[in-house]
Design a protein that fits this description.
- The structure holds 2 protein chains of 2 kinds.
- By secondary structure, chain A is mainly β.
- Chain A has no helices and 11 strands.
- In chain A, strands 2, 4, 5, 6, 9, 10 and 11 form a 7-stranded mixed β-sheet that branches.
- In chain A, a hairpin with a 6-residue loop joins strand 7 and strand 8.
- The termini of chain A are far apart.
- The model of chain A has no long low-confidence stretch (mean pLDDT about 90).
- By secondary structure, chain B is mainly beta.
- In chain B, strands 2, 4, 5, 9, 10 and 11 form a 6-stranded mixed β-sheet that branches. Chain B has a 5-stranded antiparallel β-sheet with strand order 1-3-8-7-6, with no helix packed on it.
- In chain B, a hairpin with a 6-residue loop joins strand 4 and strand 5.
- Chain B is globular and about 40 Å long.
- The N and C termini of chain B lie far apart (about 40 Å).
- Classes of the chains: A mainly beta, B mainly beta.
- The interface between A and B is medium-sized, with 26 and 22 residues.
């Protein structure tokens, strides 16, 4: 079964450092998403990306965040200068165009980011 | 925007009993309601979903019901097994764009 792959599974970084979280969406998917889940809290939407541009972003997704699809397979989330409160599990998701039985929405297994 | 409330936050049941998790949503435009199971260290996995033109859907031991008028939907797990122990999230969306998640229910099935 096709999977969304995220690397690394766990990243520890110093406060103020830049981090890049990587995702490989399912190959025929065209919509890409980042969500985050702070420990013990709900999964929160960060940003959606389609046709090489951001289509929607939440208030969490401020100027410290950026997304990129540098080639035909990767989808990255960059945090420019990490803060302690950025510590969370970050999930990438992708889906097919149109409205299939479940919109083809598939989540990756996540990257646990710890800012120290 | 959409607001999804989920309860209970924790639920313990004896193996073989049923478990019910309930969610409410606020945006009448929401038309798709998936349920996800999240095991430790893994991403959310879709287990069942329902669209707004359907009132009930069943898949083996799992069922979901939707009441559009009251804006609530529920997950029902029958004959629970220890491997059902996980965190369950409900979500709501319209047009298949961003999902609005509930706060999660930690289900423990006691052997």
């Amino acid at each position: 079964e096709p999977e969304v792959t995220q690397t690394p599974s766990h990243q520890v970084t110093q406060m103020g450092q830049e981090v890049i979280l990587r995702c490989v969406p399912i190959s025929n998917h065209l919509y890409f998403y980042w969500y985050r889940q702070i420990l013990g809290q709900k999964v929160e939407f960060l940003v959606s990306f389609y046709n090489n541009e951001i289509s929607e972003k939440s208030e969490i997704f401020d100027d410290q965040f950026s997304v990129e699809r540098p080639d035909g397979s990767n989808f990255t989330l960059k945090i420019r200068s990490t803060k302690l409160e950025d510590s969370a599990m970050y999930f990438c998701a992708s889906r097919t165009p149109g409205q299939g039985s479940n919109y083809g929405y598939t989540f990756g297994s996540g990257t646990r980011l710890t800012v120290v | 925007g959409e607001n999804v409330e989920q309860h209970p936050s924790t639920l313990s049941v004896q193996e073989g009993d049923s478990a019910v998790i309930k969610c409410t949503y606020s945006d009448s435009a929401s038309n798709y309601f998936p349920w996800y199971k999240q095991e430790l260290g893994k991403g959310p996995q879709l287990i069942i979903d329902i669209r707004s033109n359907v009132g009930e859907k069943k898949d083996q031991r799992i069922a979901v019901t939707l009441n559009k008028t009251a804006k609530h939907f529920s997950l029902h797990i029958t004959e629970t097994q220890p491997e059902d122990s996980a965190v369950y999230f409900c979500a709501a969306t319209s047009l298949g764009n961003q999902f609005y998640f509930g706060t999660g229910t930690s289900l423990t099935v006691i052997p």
